[in-house]
Amino acid sequence: MPLPKSIATVCLSGALPDKLEAAAAIGFDGVEIFENDLLTYDGSPAEVGRLCRDLGLSIALYQPFRDFEAMPEPLRRRNLDRAERKFDTMQQLGAELLLVCSNTQPATLPEPERAAADLREMAGRAARRGLRVGYEALAWGRQVSLWRQAWEIVRAADHPALGLVLDSFHTLARGDSLAGLEAVPAEKLFFLQLADAPKLALDVLSWSRHFRLFPGQGELPVAEFLRDVLRAGYRGPVSLEIFNDEFRAAPVRRIARDGLRSLIWLDDVIQAEAPPATVPAAPLPAAPMLDGIEFVEFAVDEPARAALGEFLGTLGFHCAGRHRSKAVELQRQGGVNLVLNSEPDSAAAERFEMFGPAVCAMALRVDDPARALARAQALLSPAWQEPVGEGEQRIPAIRAPDGTLIYLLRPGAEIWADDFALRPEAPAVPPLTGIDHVVQALAPTHLDGFVLFYRSVFGLQPEPLLELPDPFGIVRSRTLAAPNRSLRLPLNVSESRQTTTGRFVSAYAGAGVHHIAFATPDAAALVAAMPAAPLLDIPENYYDDLEARFGLDDAALSALRRGHLLYDQDGQSGAFLHAYSRTFQDRFFFEVVERRGGYDQYGAPNAAVRMAAQSRHRG
Amino acid sequence: MPLPKSIATVCLSGALPDKLEAAAAIGFDGVEIFENDLLTYDGSPAEVGRLCRDLGLSIALYQPFRDFEAMPEPLRRRNLDRAERKFDTMQQLGAELLLVCSNTQPATLPEPERAAADLREMAGRAARRGLRVGYEALAWGRQVSLWRQAWEIVRAADHPALGLVLDSFHTLARGDSLAGLEAVPAEKLFFLQLADAPKLALDVLSWSRHFRLFPGQGELPVAEFLRDVLRAGYRGPVSLEIFNDEFRAAPVRRIARDGLRSLIWLDDVIQAEAPPATVPAAPLPAAPMLDGIEFVEFAVDEPARAALGEFLGTLGFHCAGRHRSKAVELQRQGGVNLVLNSEPDSAAAERFEMFGPAVCAMALRVDDPARALARAQALLSPAWQEPVGEGEQRIPAIRAPDGTLIYLLRPGAEIWADDFALRPEAPAVPPLTGIDHVVQALAPTHLDGFVLFYRSVFGLQPEPLLELPDPFGIVRSRTLAAPNRSLRLPLNVSESRQTTTGRFVSAYAGAGVHHIAFATPDAAALVAAMPAAPLLDIPENYYDDLEARFGLDDAALSALRRGHLLYDQDGQSGAFLHAYSRTFQDRFFFEVVERRGGYDQYGAPNAAVRMAAQSRHRG
């Protein structure tokens, strides 16, 4: 029996009914009503309560009640009056539990016994109405900022209607842990709030108010936190309380789905570790073992298909076959398959109409497509099926958050011979070994959702955020990579619409693939074998600086110069050589990359050179 | 003789020639060439040098040379080779001074004498080419992070081609000062970089890389810093080095103008304080003494004029006159004059065509309009003059950064009788005493520029940034106010286009007035006297919470309820009562405010209630 899943209304955008309807539609069991959402709403608490009941949502908590305990008179008495007014509201709502967060006022007295007495008085008044009070330590509380301090006060108050509220952010953001929680009786754990966050060296209040994330989107050990709470015997709701400026600006159902996905994923993460007694849910199907990208598919029309085929031809690709029943062409170079889909009335055609030429699908090789599909579905990513012809393959697929299809294929599955009339392999330039990485440009509000999707559904690991200087603003990049490095997906965002990334985002209405990097064991030889390739010109000044930075010899430098190649190093022996194509029809471009000696990055120091060259090319 | 004014190319957006041309066009004397801007540019250093000379710009500095000093072999030797390559580049550029910033590498040795020996060796090599080296302490340098440490090393190295570079950010961000600088010989002060910043509790590296501002836009004591450097005898360029993501995304000339304006303003600020010997420039005309807003002018067409007149009628205004020669109407209520301008072929008409009904001008009462105009011009805000008819008043005016006209009027000047056929005063509702504040909605990239404009040209003081929760995202608000409080201009920005502010910004293509607050001594009486006013409905829940929070009595509460009034308190006795109109044609709205007992804010805790109500009204 999984624990009830709840979300605080403050996580979501819009008016209170919009928030409630989204939470219910996505599948949450309950909500925390955030007071500001009620105050600014023009319906009565009773109406809100009725709406929740109609939607099948429990009201797990009403919050926050601030700056209550250990105040001198007359503030103490006024605070108790204030509590009575809020109890009125809660009874009209049908909310049973009130969150009291630790006092932040300078006037609060440094006397835990006063705090305990006040909370005992409040709990007594609550109990007379059938209500309860949960006390939470805010990380920036004036006298009480650790859960252990809050617990000492709750213990001293010793009232059955008073318990503890735990919040992962307030504990983990201070570098604190739940060590000692096992000494707290399980029935005193009234409520659990979960939030993740990026690691920021920011004051904890600003960090909390603006940069919280759903579990799995950030860098805090939220799974371990949940495990500790379950081990301590907690069996109440698991509730998300996320203050995030971007979430509040995003479509409410998208954010609600991300939230529920994060809780389902968390359940799964702790399965492996937690003792059986605390396992809260049936396990998810395991994440797939990944084995690279079988193909990338482009939505084109006939003229764009011809133009893209020609463009790819200059990069060493040849037309390896045509689909038997559809206007679909296979372009191939070594281990890289690119599908050009101009079939009318298909999902690809829809994509083309919206965006012009665009990547519309990727096929991932996974050990067990059916299991991967079942996992995706359990994580709220519905299966997708395009109509297929007689005798043609039916490939399981899901949609990424931007609508891109992700096909799931068994490694070694022969998908080409059945559906395609294949042509003999052309005499090739040195063969590519595969697709090294695929870069997507996203609107900033999409980043956290994409991270959670790839992390939860495919088990990819997020890497640290990088900052890349474009001539017209900053581009931020976060890569998700398979532990075995068979799949690498950098995600680029930019607040500016004038950057290279910002322009791609606009062209794709929020998200789209902007470049694909092909892997080669010898970039210089490859580039030399495709003299017609429209490679991005690299300034001489760049090579002068390479010479100064790395002390490369003349032969190495002139090979780089000749090949329009950029260069980077990492670790003891890692090196990276890469060249970029120009951009195809202002939509996407290609890269060839050679990794030497275990180089594990993406040439970030060269991104500024690329983006400046791209801005020159577009004039 | 003012010190030369310089700007680092990293402050500005675009390719290197765009940056140089903007710096020259705005009037800078020189630039710092930021290495990344050169590396990503496809012209040679010699060509860049020629362009600078053609534009009349000196190259004040080439930077940065990183991670040089106190490295073990073979890194030490490689670093010297690297320096020789950069000296080559500088000679081609025609740059004479290289900035070396303190080493951040873990490998750097904690041995100042090694650092001094290395810098001495480097300076010797530079001197043989006629070049010089300036050493700067980065706030996050590994061994050297304070200017005094850098100076000890420069002193020990004792080479005439080696000196110190000071940077206000690196010193002030650490809470350090220039105490002791008088012991450094003036000829050892090679270069001065200035940057301001907001006070953020952020790690100093992120703070520096993303949130620097031009002097006057932030909260660091940059003027005092500059004064100390001048007292120490420095007479080189004053140069801006600002890393700011938004500046990089904004139009290059706008940012360049802001930069030069900040340096002109700084000159002016230090005039008053610095001993005459160090005064670097002729003084600016003094900032005006302000005395409130004489009128606000709206751009309308005939139908919008009629509709707005009717709307204002419900708020107690009456048509007090018509212009003798133009399609301009005066609406008046007590001390508030609103001008409705539907004259074809005017600046107002241009504004109306672009945005629909919009505020196009404000008239400020200032002690000396000619002096205020001269000051504005000296601060790069050109005078503006609309054609006037025979015998009509010619009022001096400038343009705000968004194009809004700001007229400058002497208090008590009779501007109405000459140009307008005035009608007798209508029997009025309780008269308004004036305009309390005017709120502008801005795209986030405009905020810092507006702050500097109002601060420098009018001597307004920026107040701390507030955060206001809209149902669809966060709105940030920063107010500029006259010391005597006769002019208050809150500036609101939002990253989200869905917020109330974001929607106004979109409607106005980046910036525009979204509401005007009228002052009354008795808000309840005023509202009672205008029963037809389309006031914003306030939820009952809000009043229930007021009762809980402030313990207001029933009479007070029901007066607030009846009047659609919001309520706030500050300090011991300050109180604020205010009501909002609905929005006129989705463009702007009005507020009536009553300040009691020295209340000095704007009711920020109620902004969420207003914005939620506005989002309900628009459905």
UniProtKB/TrEMBL annotation, chains A, B:
Biological process (GO) annotations held by this record are: 3,4-dihydroxybenzoate biosynthetic process
Pathway assignment: Aromatic compound metabolism; 3,4-dihydroxybenzoate biosynthesis
Q: Which residues bind Mg(2+)?
A: H437, H515, E591
Under the GO molecular function aspect, what terms does this record hold? 3-dehydroshikimate dehydratase activity; metal ion binding
Q: Cross-referenced SUPFAM superfamilies, in alphabetical order?
A: Glyoxalase/Bleomycin resistance protein/Dihydroxybiphenyl dioxygenase, Xylose isomerase-like
Q: Which residues bind a divalent metal cation?
A: E136, D167, Q193, E241
Quote the Pfam families the UniProt record gives.
Answer: AP_endonuc_2, Glyoxalase_5
Q: Which cofactor does it need?
A: a divalent metal cation
Q: State which Enzyme Commission number(s) the record gives.
A: 4.2.1.118
InterPro entries cross-referenced by the UniProt entry? DSD, Glyas_Bleomycin-R_OHBP_Dase, IolE/XylAMocC-like, VOC_core, Xyl_isomerase-like_sf, Xyl_isomerase-like_TIM-brl
Superkingdom, according to UniProt?
A: Bacteria
UniProt xrefs under Gene3D superfamilies: 2,3-Dihydroxybiphenyl 1,2-Dioxygenase, domain 1 (3.10.180.10), Divalent-metal-dependent TIM barrel enzymes (3.20.20.150)
Instruction: Please give the start and end residues of each transmembrane region.
Output: none
> Boundaries of each VOC domain copy?
292-411, 434-571
Provide the reaction this enzyme catalyses. Answer: 3-dehydroshikimate = 3,4-dihydroxybenzoate + H2O
Q: Which UniProt keywords apply?
A: Lyase, Metal-binding
Family to which this protein belongs = Belongs to the bacterial two-domain DSD family.
Summarize the protein's role.
Answer: Catalyzes the conversion of 3-dehydroshikimate to protocatechuate (3,4-dihydroxybenzoate), a common intermediate of quinate and shikimate degradation pathways.
PANTHER family per record: HYDROXYPYRUVATE ISOMERASE, XYLOSE ISOMERASE-LIKE TIM BARREL DOMAIN-CONTAINING PROTEIN
Q: What is this protein called?
A: 3-dehydroshikimate dehydratase
